[in-house]
Specification:
This protein has 336 residues and is an alpha/beta fold. The protein has helices at residues 21-31, 49-55, 69-79, 98-106, 126-142, 160-165, 179-189, 210-230, 249-269, 274-309, 312-331; strands at residues 8-14, 37-42, 59-62, 84-88, 92-93, 112-117, 147-148, 155-159, 194-204. The chain folds into 2 domains: 8-208, Spore Coat Polysaccharide Biosynthesis Protein SpsA, Chain A; 249-331, no CATH class. The two termini are 40 Å apart.
């Protein structure tokens, strides 16, 4: 067990985050103990986020890395003095007792600690609920063990020495896509372990329309395909999810089953006999893997959760086209 006086450096990358940063920093600052520090790295904001963060008591510095989340986080990590670095997204609100829960998780002896998406969501639209609750369900229901094969840098802590030894995040990865999966693969391939802290639920403030969510999902899927195609074979786990491939089997099965469902509906509408059977088969396969999520979504979100459950179908329909697009893009020379 580690001593409870472990020093934590909290690093929050920001880019035009003026609408959310105050709420995020207020909770983080209230939980700091001893020699903990709160570092905000401004990734070329134009809305005054840096001034606002400084006024809230954070140590603010400009990003010295390449544009994007990886460069900003690396800048903050280089300035951190704690034994542990806690990376927090600028729209991720921690629970009030985040420090105590993080201390407890750190004391379990892992090299990284991963918080989970909270069951609570902002707004009233189904897309935002789907995005957040789907991840919450995956973290708390699909993943069975205490240790995971990936990480999500919305609220992720890692030993500073290990982070430095691994060279930080890959700044060639654009935006905020798979830089965390890449880092986790390197950590795990070196013998490190990432513990999931299911009692550390984080609220996300970002809202999505249906179109925004589909664009986000598409970009993430394509980025994962490109990552898997360019990665070194000895680079660690091939998973680009915090869940193991076996735990994500419902998604893989659903991605295949959505096409018999859609084709069957078209054939049935045209009055062709096999259509109804194909549609029922596809729906049955998807339902077999997702009925638990659908039930939990309705239980937690009511009518909003019911509407969100239907987003499963267009989300699954993106998987194979994104896979093919990523393959073609890679063959055409695209790496990132």
């Amino acid at each position: 067990m580690e001593k409870n006086t472990v020093r934590i450096s909290v690093v929050v990358p920001v880019h035009n985050s003026g609408e959310t940063i105050e709420r995020v920093l207020e909770v983080l600052k209230a939980g700091l103990e001893g020699e903990d520090e709160l570092i905000v790295v401004d990734d070329r904001s134009t809305d005054g986020t840096a001034v606002l963060a400084a006024g809230l008591g954070a140590r603010v510095m400009p990003s010295r890395g390449k544009p994007g989340a990886a460069g900003a986080r690396n800048t903050g990590a280089a300035a951190a003095g704690g034994e542990w670095i806690l990376f927090v997204d600028s729209d991720a609100v921690a629970p009030r007792n985040w420090r105590a829960r993080m201390t407890e998780a750190i004391g379990e002896g892992a090299d990284g600690v991963q918080a989970v998406y909270g069951r609570e969501t902002v707004g009233s639209d189904a897309a935002t609920f789907y995005k957040n609750f789907y991840y919450h369900y995956t973290f708390t229901r699909r993943i069975k063990g205490d240790y995971i094969t990936g990480c999500g840098t919305f609220f992720f802590a890692v030993r500073r020495k290990i982070f430095a030894d691994l060279g930080g995040f890959d700044e060639n990865i654009p935006g905020a896509t798979v830089e965390d999966a890449d880092f986790a693969a390197r950590l795990i391939s070196g013998g490190g372990r990432i513990r999931i802290a299911r009692d550390l639920e984080v609220l996300h403030l970002r809202k999505y329309t249906f179109g925004q969510l589909m664009r986000y999902e598409w970009n993430m899927m394509v980025s994962k395909v490109l990552y898997l195609l360019r990665r070194d074979g000895d680079h660690g786990s091939p998973s680009v999810s915090m869940a193991r491939p076996s735990e994500m089997l419902p998604v893989l099965l659903g991605a295949a089953a959505i096409w018999p469902l859609l084709a069957g509906l078209v054939l049935a509408a045209a009055g062709m006999g096999p259509g109804a059977g194909a549609a029922l088969l596809g729906f049955g396969l998807i339902a077999a893997g997702h009925r638990g999520f659908w039930g939990a979504a309705v239980e937690n979100g009511g009518w909003r959760g019911f509407r969100a459950a239907w987003i499963t179908f267009p989300d699954l329909a993106l998987v194979i086209p994104a896979l093919l697009f990523g393959l073609v893009s890679s063959l055409a020379g695209r790496k990132y």
